[in-house]
């Protein structure tokens, strides 16, 4: 009997993103500054298949090597091959592949955000309705990880779910209350403030500073 692979939210977002990448081709814009869809696809291959170069995603001193490897991935294969590598998921020999549950734990938010990076860079985009359990997962991650995501915020931040729940993301004064559905709060927290459908309450200067801040996990 064949083993049934459970379709997790990480896998569902991965598949939906790859379908969209295929539809748009390699030259479509994304919300990642300076990146086309081809660049984003190469980035996703790098972070899962070139662990030697992934450090530069978070460590500035290593960013040059990471960028050079990403460029080689982009130029060394056809766009369709790069997208297919993303679609296949992490190889079995990587931590994502052999540690049970790690792919879903790490990649759910990663692929949700990058899926939206592509969607929201296209004309006429509108927010999509997430499955209830995925939306709740996003809210819980924001509530538990908001202090890390907003560590560079220049003012205090309180996140408020549209159902009224609140989570402190940075304890400081003055503070801004950011309200929205979990997916919108996630995009805001990941530095996509201009493309997140949220409302902000606080003094105008604090809101302006937060909206212009370099945020992100």
From TrEMBL:
Domain Mycothiol-dependent maleylpyruvate isomerase metal-binding: 8-55
InterPro entries: CHP03085, DinB/YfiT-like, Maleyloyr_isom, MDMPI_metal-binding
Coiled-coil regions listed: none
Alphabetized Pfam families for the sequence: MDMPI_N
One example GO MF annotation: metal ion binding
SUPFAM superfamilies the UniProt entry points to: DinB/YfiT-like putative metalloenzymes
Protein name as annotated: TIGR03085 family protein
Record organism: Sphaerisporangium album
